[in-house]
Amino acid sequence: MSTTTATKMTAEEFFDFVHLPENANKWFELDRGEVIEMSSPTRLHGVVCTRMGRYLDQFLDDHGGGYVAGNDSGVILARHPDIVRGPDVAVFDDAQVMADVHPKYGEVAPILVIEVLSPNDRAVQVNRKIADYFQAGTKLVWLFDPESFSVIVHRLNGVPQILDITGTLDGEDVIPGFRCKLADIYRLPHEPRSPAATPAHRP
């Protein structure tokens, strides 16, 4: 990540900025009024997001309890100075029909956030984002590390829990009844299911 400007922006000014023609195909967040340019996602990053989003979307379609937003959909987490984050995948519960989904960013925090680590992510930056989510009202954060085939589960006022590929994600009281084996996320659609075992580290 790199700071592109020190000028304090509002969320509304940031929305206009990111939609300028010259900023097409770029990724940004607003961190306390400062624009931060994000690295473009890797293919592995995209695969994990797509698979996790699909599992969540199918569950919520069958059981209710919210809806899934992907593609780094922006959400305003704080004002004065403004913070706009773009979670890789998120579950919101602020709308019951499509017509009620906010047309821009919205200021209701997601109940569940999924972030997928990129190769150049720094721990201090990631932890800052997670703190922003919790301060805004998010209840659960799943931090995926595709290179180690693991997930760190962050709960409000709780100790982070590391799950390896043999583990199972649990929606707990945030998405009651949702359970998903990490081995099913860290595999391609045509890859045969097998007893979970930690794969070799990818180069």
Can you walk me through this structure?
The chain has helices at residues 11-18, 43-63, 123-136, 182-185; strands at 2-3, 27-31, 34-38, 67-69, 75-78, 83-85, 89-92, 112-116, 140-145, 150-155, 161-163, 168-170, 179-181. With 203 residues, the chain is α+β, with helices and mostly antiparallel strands. The chain has one domain: tt1808, chain A (Alpha-Beta Complex). The protein has a six-stranded mixed β-sheet with strand order 4-7-8-9-10-11, sandwiched between helices. The longest helix is centred in the N-terminal third of the chain and has 21 residues, at 43-63. The model is unreliable at 1-5 and 196-203 (pLDDT under 50).
